[in-house]
Amino acid sequence: MNQSKIFIIDDNEELCESLQFLFSTTYELQPQIYYNPQVFLEEFSQENTGCLIVDIFMPYMNGLDLIKRVKEINKKVKIIILSGNGGGNTASKALEAGADAFIKKPFGISELLDKVSAFLNK
């Protein structure tokens, strides 16, 4: 793995902590966790590299708006949406907003690890 970072933006604390453990043991990276997308945006910059793992439905700002704002700041960062709502056109809206991948909850760990690994090694 290169020096890229993993950012997890989700209001579900249990999921965030589980993913943080998964990535720290698998890649020896310490993902940065944000429960509030607005706080994440205050700290995110165009110098950041890596992969964002984002939920769609969060308080303060939804994931679609977050994706658009992130891509305005930094087009190079890769974004994976994790959402329990993959029905309707949620996935297509996320991809149109700038997400690079959409994974429906519940998800297989290998599916997420494969996506993150592919994005971090590009």
Automatic annotation (TrEMBL):
Q: Does the keyword Phosphoprotein apply?
A: yes
Record Pfam families: Response_reg
**One record GO biological process:** phosphorelay signal transduction system
Identify residues that carry 4-aspartylphosphate: 55
- Alphabetical keyword list: Phosphoprotein
Q: Would the keyword Phosphoprotein be found if you checked this record's keyword annotation?
A: yes
InterPro entries, A to Z: Bact_response_regulator, CheY-like_superfamily, Sig_transdc_resp-reg_receiver
Per the record, the domain of life is Bacteria
Response regulatory domain boundaries? 5-120
Instruction: Indicate the secretion signal residues.
Output: none
State the protein's name. Answer: Mycobacterial persistence regulator A
To which species is this protein native?
A: Fluoribacter dumoffii
